[in-house]
Every structure is written in structure tokens, then in C-alpha cells.
Design brief:
The complex is a heterodimer of chains A (about 260) and B (about 260). With about 260 residues, chain A is mostly helical. Chain A contains eleven helices and no strands. Chain B is mostly helical. Classes of the chains: A mainly alpha (about 260), B mainly alpha (about 260). Chain A: Keywords: Membrane, Transmembrane, Transmembrane helix.
């Protein structure tokens, strides 16, 4: 445990030391939030409701989606990708720590800061706009649990995308594609309730929806069919399944590594 | 003339170099298509349920969106190198460029080619064509002339604003300019009709950071849509201003440049 704790601490300090890039990448998500707020307010502001969403509910949805977007954003994968491409990953292989757990520890360190920053933004928005229906304490606890499950879940998706760098030279494209695909299938771009039925069924069968859709639906108390606790259980099941899958992928990927000289 | 020819050949050389990595090329093209697809999905979902946003119909919004995508493609093709400016300054590599008998700004611009440019130019062009086909535009000679002036001006604004944003690297001095990325993201707000934002934000996007002149205002003028349609006729003037600004800011920055010391 000790080496991982140290890694998490170093990641946290790193993010604190490079505050400007961190805050700037956060500001990009904030600008997106501003656009979405304005867009949906134009649509729902005068008391309309679309696909069962009223303006206060949509505000809550957008904030939860912003929060999950902030967690485990681009630090883990870009750092990993550059080390794989430069061959510095060889040094990681020599260390007597598990690669996947090590990266996860770092992601946790970052996530602490990301949570603090995202919570601050959400608090400011809540004060400025107000009017978000808060769930009762029992469901709020479930919501917090499901937010916590988002961290390992999103980490695993990001981590597996980072591993693709063992096959390709360029990581930017993979990262952009991941953001787009998971944005669509998680419900971060548009709530899944707006999708045509077939696309919603596809999305519900994939792990992405557990990143944004599950916590947002728990917050709003709209998990059709699934009782809240079960929704969190599904998230955890995905974490276990993806953890195992990521390990398999790592074992295949690492065999492709060729490092020239030293 | 000679200057332009060298610029084209520089870009061509980078293009050939990047095309060597075919898998990466296709990944980036697909990534661009997916990213814009997510944006389109949002527009499509909204307009499946409401006919207009603040008086703007679906194909009008798609036209704005298409302009933004096309402009992004243009800036990735013509000025992608500026995204590396922060690194060039940080490592003192600008020295080399200053020694060559060729404008430094153009060297920086053509020092890289953005591979998503092809995806974005194709998607943007396709969207523009589709939207125009659906909009039932009367192609009088005046209209054609208007389009012929507005389109290149709008693209030029985007390219110039990218240069301005990245020229801040001379003052910020990090190895990566996240400030520019933040500004770029702010510009994304103008993908939607400007009237959905608060008056202050509208004013900023129309004057200080004239991102609204890339899509919203030229499209308003072209379709003669809304009270502010006449503002769009200023697009060529704004373009001229942006080009002058880009050159001036880059020159001012270059005067501050003092190499890396070895």
C-alpha cells in the first residue's frame, strides 16, 4: 500500500504545482457548462419540459454531468501516452509496483483536486442560479456512492485508451475519439432519455452510461426499473469487469513494447 | 508570391511526413468526425422536439455549426504550428527560425499540420452544403458575391484568433499554452445562436473576442436573419482587424523573446 499512497500524494502535489494548466483545463469544461446552461435555459426557461425534464431538473443534470466530466480528465492518459511513446515506460516496468494500480493511485491523487475544484464551481453555480431540487438524504448517500464509483470506472476507460498507444504513434486522436464516444454514450452530451429507443438500449448495455447517466438519474430520482442500490451495484460490476479486462489488455500490449537504447 | 509558395511547400512537406503514419491519420479523421458528430447529435435531439431556438431553425443552426467546423479545419490546416509556439519559445528553438530569411510567423504557422483538419474540412463542407440545400436560398449574383466575401473572411478570423491566442505564449512562458486552449473553447460557445447568452457574454463574443464573426454573424447576414443581420456585413472588416491584430501581437511578443540561454 505504501508506494501507492506515495504515488497518489505525488500526483496531488504535481497538480497543485502546475495549477495553471489544471485550472485552464477546468475552465474549458466550465465554458462548456456555460453553453449548455444557456442552450437549455433558452429551451426550458419558460416552464416547458422536454422528455420529462423541467428546467430545475435539467440544471441538476447539467451540474452532475459537469462533475463527472471533471473527474479523471486528461492527466492520466496523456502522461501515460507520452511515457509509452518515449519509452520511459520501461522505467515503470522495472519498479516493483503494479503498473495499473500505480496509475490508479495517481488518478486518485488528481481526483481529489478535481473533486474540490468541480464542487467549488457547482457551489458557485448553485448560488448564482439556485433552484435545483435536492434528493432526500437516503438517495443523496447513494448518489455520493455512485459518484465515488465513477472515479475507478472512468479511470479504467481512460487507462485502456492510454494503452492503445502501444500500437499507435499519436495519442491525440484516441483521446478525442474517447471523449466524443463516451460523451455520447454516457449521457454527458444529451441525457439518454432524449435518445431514440434503440440507441438508448445500446447505451444502457455499455459501461459508459454508468459514468454520467447513473449518478444523474440517482440525483434526480429517475432510475426507471432499477432501484437506486442496484444501479450502484451495476457500476461496481463494471468496475470489476473492466479492471480484469484492462489487465488482459496490458499483458497483450506490453509485449509490443520495444525500447531503443538507454 | 514567393512567400506564399514557400508557405505552401512547408505545409506540404509536413503533410507528407504526417501521412507516413497512416493509422494515425485515419484515427484523427475518425476522431474529428466523432467529435463533430456529438455536437450534431445535440442539435438533432433538440430540434427533434422543438422547431426553433430563439427564432433559429434546425438548418440555420447547422449552417452556423458547419461554418465553425470548417473554420476549425482551416485553422488546423494553416496555423496548427502556432499550438507548438509555447514549446518553441520554452526550448529556445525559435532562434533557428529567426535566422532564416522568411517571416517568423509564417514559419511557426507552417511548422505542423493538424491531421484532424481533413476530417473537419470534410465534415464542415458537407454540413454547409447540406444546410444550404435545405434552406432554399435564392442564389442571386448578389448572394453569391456576399458568400464569396463572407466565407473566406470568417475562416481568416478563426485562423487569426488562433494566432493571437497562441501568441500569448511569449508572455505566459509555459511549455504548453493552456490559456489558448481555454480561449479556443470559449469560442465554441458561438456554435449556437448568440442570443441565448447573457448580454455581457454576447458583447464579449462580438467585440473583444470576435468569435461570433466566424459563424453566427456571417450566417445572419447571408440569410438576412434577425435584427442584427447587418452586423454580419462587417465580417470582412473584422477579418482585416483580426489579421492586423495577429501580426501586431506576434511582433510584440517576438520582441520579448530572449532565447533559452544556450
Amino acid at each position: 500500500m505504501r508506494p501507492y499512497r506515495a504515488m497518489a500524494r505525488i500526483a496531488w502535489r504535481n497538480a497543485l504545482a502546475y495549477r495553471v494548466p489544471f485550472l485552464m483545463s477546468l475552465s474549458m469544461l466550465v465554458f462548456n457548462l456555460v453553453a449548455m446552461f444557456a442552450l437549455w435555459q433558452a429551451l426550458l426557461g419558460d416552464g416547458n419540459s422536454l422528455a420529462g425534464f423541467t428546467w430545475p431538473q435539467m440544471k441538476a443534470y447539467l451540474l452532475v454531468s459537469f462533475f463527472t466530466n471533471c473527474l479523471v480528465s486528461t492527466f492520466t492518459d496523456f502522461a501515460m501516452a507520452s511515457r509509452i511513446r518515449s519509452g520511459a515506460v520501461a522505467v515503470d516496468l522495472v519498479k516493483p509496483v503494479d503498473y495499473q494500480k500505480g496509475r490508479f493511485a495517481e488518478a486518485l491523487g488528481f481526483a481529489l483536486l478535481e473533486t474540490a475544484a468541480a464542487a467549488t464551481v457547482c457551489a458557485v453555480v448553485l448560488v448564482a442560479f439556485g433552484g435545483v431540487p435536492l434528493p432526500p438524504p437516503g438517495r443523496l448517500a447513494l448518489f455520493v456512492a455512485s459518484l465515488a464509483a465513477v472515479v475507478p470506472l472512468k479511470f479504467l476507460i481512460v487507462y485502456m485508451c492510454g494503452l492503445i498507444c502501444f500500437w499507435t504513434q499519436n495519442y491525440l486522436g484516441i483521446s478525442l475519439a474517447r471523449v466524443a464516444v463516451s460523451g455520447i454514450l454516457s449521457g454527458a452530451t444529451v441525457p439518454l432519455a432524449f435518445f431514440p429507443a434503440w440507441l438508448r438500449h445500446v447505451a444502457e448495455a455499455l459501461p459508459f452510461q454508468a459514468v454520467t447517466n447513473t449518478p444523474a438519474m440517482l440525483f434526480l430520482g429517475r432510475s426507471p426499473g432499477l432501484p437506486g442500490a442496484l444501479a450502484v451495484a451495476v457500476q461496481l460490476l463494471w468496475v470489476v469487469a473492466l479492471w480484469w479486462l484492462a489487465r488482459r489488455l496490458w499483458h497483450v500490449a506490453v509485449r509490443r513494447l520495444t525500447v531503443h537504447g538507454g | 508570391m514567393h512567400t506564399l509558395r514557400v508557405y505552401r511547400r512547408c505545409l506540404g512537406a509536413h503533410l507528407r511526413a504526417t501521412l507516413e503514419y497512416q493509422a494515425d491519420f485515419w484515427i484523427l479523421v475518425v476522431a474529428a468526425v466523432l467529435t463533430q458528430g456529438a455536437g450534431l447529435l445535440l442539435i438533432a435531439t433538440i430540434f427533434a422536439r422543438v422547431p426553433r431556438i430563439h427564432g433559429w431553425g434546425v438548418w440555420e443552426v447547422v449552417l452556423i455549426f458547419g461554418m465553425m467546423v470548417l473554420a476549425q479545419g482551416a485553422s488546423e490546416l494553416l496555423a496548427e504550428g502556432t499550438w507548438g509556439l509555447a514549446g518553441l519559445i520554452n526550448r529556445g528553438e525559435l532562434d533557428r527560425m529567426l535566422l532564416r530569411p522568411y517571416p517568423c510567423l509564417l514559419q511557426v504557422c507552417s511548422s505542423r499540420v493538424g491531421m484532424n483538419a481533413f476530417g473537419n474540412l470534410t465534415v464542415g463542407g458537407g454540413l454547409l452544403g447540406t444546410a444550404l440545400a435545405h434552406l432554399d436560398v435564392a442564389w442571386t449574383p448578389g448572394r453569391v458575391a456576399l458568400a464569396a466575401v463572407l466565407l473566406p473572411s470568417a475562416l481568416l478570423i478563426k485562423v487569426s484568433l488562433t494566432v493571437v491566442a497562441n501568441s500569448t505564449s511569449f508572455w505566459l512562458r509555459g511549455a504548453i499554452n493552456t490559456f489558448a486552449a481555454g480561449l479556443d473553447q470559449l469560442g465554441e460557445l458561438t456554435k449556437y445562436p448568440l442570443s441565448i447568452y447573457s448580454v455581457g457574454l454576447q458583447a464579449v463574443l462580438a467585440t473583444a473576442l470576435p468569435f461570433a464573426f466566424i459563424g453566427f454573424f456571417p450566417v445572419s447576414a447571408f440569410l438576412d436573419h434577425g435584427r442584427l443581420a447587418w452586423v454580419g456585413l462587417l465580417t470582412p472588416l473584422v477579418a482585416a482587424w483580426c489579421v492586423l491584430l495577429a501580426v501586431a501581437v506576434f511582433r510584440r511578443g517576438l520582441r520579448r523573446y530572449d532565447s533559452a540561454g544556450n
